[in-house]
Amino acid sequence: MPVGAQWGGALFVARRPKAEGVHEGRHPGRRAVPSPPPVLTEPGWPATLCYFAKVAPHRAQVRVPVVKSESGMSEQSTSAKPTDMRVRVQGEPRDSYPERAPEAERGRVRRITVVGEDVLHRRNAEVASELFGTDELSRLIDDMFCTMYVAEGVGLAGNQVGVDLRLFVYDCPDDDGVRHVGHVITPVLDERDPETTPLVVENEGCLSVPGPHAELPRAEHATVRGFDKDGAPLVISGTGYFARCLQHETDHTYGRLYIDRLAARPRKRVLKQMNEMREEVFARRAANAAALTGEAGAE
Ligand SMILES: [Zn+2]
Asked: Which amino acids are annotated catalytic?
């Protein structure tokens, strides 16, 4: 079973695919995809993770951004500003932020649904305006953060705790190592512009498909529009792994799992591996829940 750093690691960071294939640009191990592969030809689905991941050590605190040269090749800039490494909470930079979102401290662990359960495979209900600003919605988000951390994920959608509502939470790094934390209600992805936003193939997994990973193309940049729990409009943008997270989680709210984007053979392989790995994953989550919440384990 692929596991990351020990529970309590400081930051969840993308698991990289094994270093093979072409190494391009600033993302060794990733393969840029010039045009959409067949798996993404189905229209109508906003391109989205309750991805696992973890954990690589913190990256350097200041990185030199990469800019496009006239030749179109990426190169390191000598004049661009260093990346602002501050944690983004609901899209806004914070000078300090705890290792786990405060919501998790208030939440309780819920059971994570597994592929095959109906709520994962249909478009979920829109969050009614009457629900904004209520304790009920706040408690749900608290529980989702708590559950996500226990399962060592970087994102979690409502239907993954069995709730038929379109929302997700996340605590996910981008490819610069900047941590993004927040929640989005009724997320809608901006349509990808193939001219400006390439697809990138990386490993992806899902807490509701416990255990395996598979390579999947996703847009390198993504913007999600929605609302916060009080009904204020939100626009969250991300690159790299965080962009993948935004796409994966928005997919969930429409009833789409990442394995639904795989060809038949890798999908079959993932489901077979899940059956072999799931009990080990569940045991690990139970141990995490016990360690995190003390006597209050999963319901
Ligand atoms: Zn997922």
From this structure: 249
